[in-house]
Amino acid sequence: MMELSPEDNLRLNVLLAQQLQAVRIDESSMTLYGLAETGEAKVKLNPNCRDELYVRRVRELLSGQVLGSPEGYPVFLRRWTRMGQISGVRLEDMLKLGEPEAVVAVACSPNLSDELARRVWWAYPDAEVARRMLACPAVAAGSMGPELAGYLVEFLPFEEDPALVMESVRLVLQPGLINDAQVELLWSRGKRKNAYLVGFLATTPDNLPEAAAPREPGEAGAALESLAEAGNPYAAALQRVFSGPGQAFLDTAETVIRKPPNQEVVLGLFEAIAGYFESIAPARPVGGDMDALAQTAAALAGGRADPGQEGWPEGLAAFRAALPGLEAELEALLVLARLGEPVLRSIFAGTDAIGSLMRRKLEPVTGPVLEHLRVLRGRAQAPVGLERS
Question: Under a CB-based contact definition with an 8 Å cutoff, are residues 92 and 68 in contact?
Answer without folding.
Answer: no
